[in-house]
Amino acid sequence: MLCYVFLGHGPKPLEPVKLADLPAARTQLANFKLLTDRVGGHVRPRYIVEHARTVRSLQSLPRLHALLPQVRDLGGAIFLDEIDRIVRKCELGNRADLLAELQVFGDQINLLRPRKKLSAFNRAELLSLVAQPRTTALRLTGSRAYTSTPHERQDQTDAARIQSERVRGQRADALAEKLDAIRMELRTVHPKVTNAMIADEANRRGILTARGKHWMPSTVARALKRLEDA
User: Which tens digit of pLDDT belongs to each residue from 62-103?
Assistant: First the structure.
């Protein structure tokens, strides 16, 4: 079982990493232990550890960036205790792009909180990720905390809403391309390929819709129409 441990604060640990000694890893390790206890004591986690104080894109996380395509190609999965740890280290203006990159592998990213795949996140959950405050360093004693104005907060909400729509659009485009690839594969063995056949094959492969549901002919038709309208 692959478990990704993200260290967003503290000094970069020296190799070999002793996770139990790292405050940034303790909560994640406890959550992963609950997971392994739930599925059975015979399951042993394999920890992938990454340290980053700031995240600008998936390339800011080289180990995760390299691992996700491998996991996808093998039909496997990787577990994270929550995606918020990573998103909070990303500037507001970069979050939509980061989430779009991650959602390409949404079927492979399994989260413990909430207990579902990243691909199953709905619009409200994506908006919450994009809009949540960024984790900042502790301020010096005696300095005054800055409180944003209602107008600034509204601007941030509007920007987050726009970016959330962008993330959903990019996720929909990625799913449409997967369905189109399935359609092309089916055409090599079937003279006529229907949306029902594409839906059945996508469901067989474990590919879910952007809402985390199984495909139907009608949802396949809408997804493929995105490619025609592009």
Answer: 999 999 999 998 989 999 999 999 999 998 888 888 888 898
* 8 A C-beta contact, residue 140 and residue 73: no
Q: At 125, list the tokens.
A: 């959950």
What residues contact residue 199 under an 8 Å CB cut-off, 6+ apart?
214, 215, 216, 217, 219, 220
Number of independent structural domains in the chain: 2
Parallel/antiparallel/unpaired status of strands 46-51 and 109-111: unpaired
In a shared domain, residues 154 and 100: no
Q: How do beta strands 116-117 and 109-111 pair?
A: antiparallel
Q: Is residue 138 part of a domain?
A: no
Between CA 3 and CA 36 the distance in angstroms is 10
Same domain, 47 and 109: yes
Contact 119, 106 (CB under 8 A): yes
Same domain, 107 and 154: no
- The CA-to-CA distance between both ends of the chain, in Å, stands at 39
The contacts of residue 184 (CB under 8 Å, 6+ apart) are none
Instruction: Give the whole-angstrom CA distance, residue 86 versus residue 101.
Output: 13
In sequence order, the β-bridge partners of residue 3 are: 47, 79
Q: How many residues appear in the chain?
A: 230
Place of tokens 């994640």: 28
Q: Does a structural domain hold residue 81?
A: yes
pLDDT in tens, 129-185: 877 665 543 333 444 444 555 655 555 555 555 656 666 677 788 889 999 999 999
